[in-house]
Amino acid sequence: MYGLLDCNNFYVSCERVFQPRYEGRPVVVLSNNDGNIISRSAEAKALGLKMGEPYFQVKELLKQHDVTIFSSNYALYGDMSRRVMWYLGQTAPAVEVYSIDEAFLDLAGMEKYHGSLDTFARKLRAGVRSRTGIPTCVGVAPTKTLAKLANRIAKKNPDLGGVLYLDNAERRAWALAQVEVGDVWGISRQYATKLAAAGVDTAADLARVSDAWARKHLGGVVGARLVQELQGRPCTGLHPSEDGTLSRQSLSCSRTFGRPLSAFSDVYGAVSAFVSRAAEKLRAQGDTAHVLTVYISKNRFAANVLPPFSRSATLTLPIGPTADTTVLLSYARALLHRLWEPGTVYHKAGVVLDGLEPPGVGLQLSLFGSATSPPPLKAKQEEQTIAPARPGLMASLDALNLRFGKGAVRLAAAVPSPEHRTAAGKGNTAPWEGKAQWRSPAFTTRLEDLLVVR
DNA sequence: TCTGGGGTCCTAGGACCC
DNA sequence: TCTGGGGTCCTAGGACCC
Q: Using one digit for the tens of pLDDT, what is the confidence trace for A388-418?
């Protein structure tokens, strides 16, 4: 049996743990750059505020109802998540950390020790609440897709006490019948529209479509699996996460800029900061990357801007996998040159690292250069010196930033230039950095931000 | 004035190989 | 009138998830 434990309104709940005066009141958390609503308390949902709604469109409504606003504080949410996952790892036989606020659990054999899986799920819920202050719901069922569905019903019906166990066929049929097809895990707008046209309205309807139909209309093998899982036949197993942290197949870092940028040096500054951050995550995960992608985007909401809104360029690193910021950055610069269209106003940029593997696994020396002095790229405009790898330097960089705080030591390219500092009028603000007007303190990860109890 | 970020999986076309 | 087939790699993009 699978369990799915999902934190309720996770970001809002994290804020409330440290500022309980916001319990019972409408609260929202905004995305980076204070752009959109990404977490809502029950009271905020009751006001009709939607997930993903742009802040500027509901500004007045928020003011009118005295809704409390937070900028997102990922230092806080990430740390609270780590605590929740650590406890689950200590308590359940196996845990797959699925996202920052939810985890799949292997519950095999737990009924022997706790009487029933329903009882065990309630204990888990209470355990997370008492250790972290975070409220959760748990769904239990024979497949992951049904566990998601059970969790959803538990969230919508407070009288269930936060837990729903679909332990037999009747209960599963009852559950399937009450969930709209668009709320099934794996069905979003495009598919929901297609399904509605075919007369498939509920999860129960979807569980009845043929394998061939699912394959044809719901993205091939993915759709076929989805239908099987709804029928109670597991198609995907649990992928346990080592020590509560999740190891990724790809890593990325991207941001919408604080203001539109059209100078190469500004966008390159942003790309430098993003490469630095992505490479830090890579080294923290103990991996190297073989494939690098850079992309730059125009403002897709602007009336006078035509698609394509985004261009990307990908390179398999000729020197083989690396985790060295300076090496990655020299290739990123070449890729940015390849994408760059002079006179264009850019809105966002990002970098992606793929082909992740532990150091040494895929080590391959280039024919024309050693791993420490790679060959230049082919195209004329990309010809340049690729920085040599310096693992010692990277280790020192990470150690200094761990000791003295994030960003204590950075590459010069990722530091805002003096004229930006003057122009912005405050300390370190780079032109690519976004707004965060309502950020709460880093209660659990910065010593100066610790709460003082009198 | 103002519209997020970080992931997964799958498909399709072109280049290239034998 | 005629112009292989099958495989892999690379790149780009679509759909979905939280």
A: 778 888 888 888 887 777 777 887 777 776 6
Tens-place pLDDT, residues A158-210 = 999 999 999 999 999 999 999 999 999 999 988 999 899 999 999 999 999 99
Give me the CA A97–C1' C15 separation in Å, rounded: 22
CA–CA separation, A110 vs A120, rounded Å?
Answer: 7
Collect all residues with Cβ–Cβ distance below 8 Å to A229 and sequence separation of at least 6: A143, A144, A145, A146, A235, A236
H-run or E-run covering A192: helix A189-197
One-letter amino acid for residue A327 of the chain:
V
pLDDT in tens, A247-262: 788 999 999 998 999 9
Domains of chain A: 251-415 (3.30.1490.100)
Nucleotide nearest to A354 (CA to C1'): B7
The answer, as to whether pTM is greater than 0.85, is yes
Q: Which residue's CA lies closest to nucleotide C12 at its C1' atom?
A: A312
| Range A396-418 burial, b when 16+ CB lie within 10 A, else e | ebbeebeeeeeeeebeebbbbee
Residues 278-297 of A with CB under 7 A from strand C: 291, 293
Backbone angles phi, psi at A405, to 5 degrees: 105, 150
- Distance, CA of A205 to CA of A178 (rounded, Å): 11
Neighbouring residues of A295: CB distance < 8 A, sequence distance ≥ 6: A254, A310, A311, A312, A313, A339, A349, A350, A351, A352
Distance separating alpha carbons of residues A265 and A273, to the nearest angstrom? 12
State which protein residues have CB closer than 7 Å to strand B: A 31-33, 35-36, 38, 52, 54, 56, 99, 219-222, 248-256, 259-260, 277, 281, 299, 301, 347-348, 350, 434
For chain A (length 454 residues), average pLDDT per consecutive 10? 97 98 97 95 96 95 97 95 96 94 95 96 98 98 97 96 97 96 93 91 95 84 90 91 77 92 93 94 91 91 83 88 93 91 91 89 47 42 61 84 78 70 54 90 91 89
Non-local (6+) Cβ contacts of A30 within 8 A are: A36, A37, A38, A55, A69, A70, A71, A72, A438
Per-residue pLDDT reduced to its tens digit, A131-140? 999 999 999 9
| Cβ(A185)–Cβ(A203) below 8 Å | no
Burial A51-75 (b: 16+ CB within 10 A, else e): eebebeebeeebeeeebbbbbbbeb
- Residue owning tokens 């509560």: A244
CA A2 to chain centre: 23
